[in-house]
Amino acid sequence: MRMRVVVTIVMSAVLVAAPVSATAAEVDTVEPGLVASAPEEQRELEPASGTIVPTTITSATGLLPTAGVYESERALILQQTNDLRATRGLPPLRLNAALNDIAQDWSVQQARSSRMSHRPGFHLLYPSGWSRAAENVAAGYSPSAVVGAWAGSTGHRANMLANHTDIGIGVAVSSTGRLYYTQNFGRYSSAPPTPPGDVYRLSGSDRFATSAQISSRTFPSGASTVYVASGLDFPDALSAAALAGAADAPLLLVTRSSVPSVILRELRRLDPDRIVVAGGSGVVTSSVISRLRTVASDVDRIAGANRYDTSRRLALDSYGGVGAPVVYIATGAGYADALAAGPAAASVDAPVVLVPGASRSADSATLALLRHLDTERVVIVGGPGAVSSGIQQSLNAAGLAVERIAGADRYATAALIGAAHFPDAPRGYLATGTGFADALSGGAAAGALGAPLFTVRPGCVPSQAHSALRAQNPDDLVLLGGLGALSPRVAGFYRC
């Protein structure tokens, strides 16, 4: 007997904006029969045949599956939608990176909850300038059938044939294999920015789920070594991220006293021989160590008297026996500069060592470490306000060649680091510069794949990062964190 599946389509939602300058409160809902609360329509379809496999991106520097983005299915839906418009003499819709980001995020959320619905206030996420917005959702159809199903429904067909100019398309699969689709439509008077590469987002329901997502997409075949650090503070993880990247290892985040279930599942999938825990019992308790030993018998805690001592000990663990001709130095009082420095340091097989940046000179313990590692060159990241001129002078006095990479602010510094170390890398990572959690695991991933990490503003790409990425011209841009961390405007490559 052939099985049949009931597929539900929620009626489409349509919004027409007041003039472009209007506020969200001035947006009027039209065609009330087509809003999200309209009755549902049910249809029976043959189940989709075969298994749909996510596209993967490959390059000389590594492998990054596209986090559930089905590129060929998205292209098919776009083509069929525009073919439908062509039958009515309508111009084709252009694929909009920001609307893609919104649609993909909503498809992922529907798939995670196994529940189809419209996103409340979806238009509030749109970049400004739209005069009309609409959304279609569907679930359970095969990619080749979903546009036909929408076309057979008056409200959905009206959205596809309306005077929109842009479209975003999301496709995601649930744990049971059910596909969820979203179309976000918009009308814009001018063309949006075009990102230099395909845009993907790695995110989870919280910082720990995001950490696991980054790891699973970067290390699909597992890892022999895994670094673990607190996800609630940044100092220990800053140094660990660079070391993880250089060792082709992920960095996973934990709480002070527990290993989140999503992290534990990822650890078991990775199946490491060794786990390195960065930080003392004040930030990662012994109960976490015990839990980690259920995954790997070789669990080593590396900790010092404070964040600076821990940073030095981490560097010794990786480079004490082989030396480090180059060492990166960043302040341990903040996270911004060290985040961007991590992948750069990993690219030249160097550690990031944290120092008390306001000190008048380099401390004796740091100088002793540099001698032990036979360091010849030091790269200071951040301006004199982050790492003092006195520290730079004392390093010079110790016979070291010293270079400083610093911009006008954290975003400019990150852009300079990226441009200097990765002028033509096929991938670029973007993370918020106003938080650290997503960029910790992301920095390790970027380092492992030979890619820069640009810190950006939550709602736009700062000018220097924008220019650096245009010059780099990567094939892929990877956003780290959800829409609350980086808005769709970042996905759309809007310049600040």
UniProtKB/TrEMBL annotation:
Record keywords: Signal
Signal peptide coordinates: 1-24
PANTHER family membership: GERMINATION-SPECIFIC N-ACETYLMURAMOYL-L-ALANINE AMIDASE, N-ACETYLMURAMOYL-L-ALANINE AMIDASE-RELATED
InterPro entries: Bact_Sporulation_Assoc, CAP_dom, CAP_sf, Cell_wall-bd_2
Domain SCP intervals: 79-185
Protein's name in the database: SCP domain-containing protein
Pfam family, one: CAP
